Each structure stands twice: as structure tokens, then as C-alpha cells.
Amino acid sequence: MYAYKNYNLRNEYSSLLPDVLPSIPWVDAALGEASSLDAVNLWLGNDQSITALHRDNYENIYCQVVGQKHFVLLPPVEAACVNEQWLVPATYDQQMYLVEDEDEDAEKVPCAIWDPDSPEKQATIYSRFSEPMRVTLQEGDVMYLPTCW
């Protein structure tokens, strides 16, 4: 399970800020100074944590602090491979049951339902052409993810 929220590093984990560099020159050059960033988040997980295949509509700098994290990356040109569907927003409750948003006006969200680790399931006619890149970050590694990767 991950702990997350927009800008949670400064808002929820502020006691960790003294251990975080206030600026990284190449990040500042690429994305602008930290004060201008839309969000700075801290993602916490264990070896059982899994994030569903998704795309972010913004750039990411991923810094691995402890342990390792495995990524399966697809370039935006492979969007037709992931069988994206528009689904009702949902969250997990404390008992880990999926609870759909009951707001009738809630906008549906795009969700990839194809899994490159089970490529035969819920595939599109294009999924077989996908060539996922697999990356493992170790402690101290930093990775730049462009928009929609």
C-alpha cells in the first residue's frame, strides 16, 4: 500500500524535509525551481506494493531512497496497446474493499486494463506489438520519466 497525496512531502511528512535536498541543479534546469513545482510527493511501500499500469500527465523525477523499485515502462506511442477504459473513480476502504465513487457527477477516469505481465489477457489488437522496458532502481538511483510514460 502506498501513502500519497499531492504535495504530501511538505504537508504530511515535513519532519523529513531536513533530509531532502532543497534543490537539484539538473532538475531545476529541466523542470524549474522546486517552489514552482505542482507537487512533491513521497511514496512509501514495501516489497508487496504494486502500482497499476498508468500514465501521468506530467513529468516525474523518481528518487529511490531505500530498497528497490521495478518499473515497466511503455512509451506514449504504445497507448493503443494498453486497452484504456473510462471507469468510475474508486478507492479502497480500511478493509481493502473497492468502493466506487457514489457521486453521480464524478468524471470517469482513464484506466489501462491490459497488463504487460499477462499480455494475453484483456489485450487489444495492438498489444502484441508492445515492447515494454523494464527498469529496476536501487537505493540512490534517480530516474526521469517524461510526460505520459
Descriptive terms for the model:
149 residues, mainly beta, two-stranded antiparallel ribbon, globular
Question: Topology, please?
Answer:
Blueprint: H1 8-11, H2 25-31, E1 60-63, E2 69-73, E3 84-87, E4 90-92, E5 98-100, E6 109-112, E7 133-137, E8 142-145
Antiparallel strand pairs: 1-8, 2-7, 3-6, 4-5
Written account of the structure:
This protein has 149 residues and is mainly beta. It has 2 helices and 8 strands. A hairpin with a 5-residue loop joins strand 4 (90-92) and strand 5 (98-100). The radius of gyration is 17 Å and the shape is globular.
User: What percentage of the residues does DSSP assign to strands (E)?
Assistant: 15-25%
Radius of gyration: 17 Å
Low-confidence stretches: 1-5
Overall form: globular
Structural class: mainly beta
Concise summary:
7% of the residues lie in helices and 21% in strands. It has 149 residues and is mainly β.
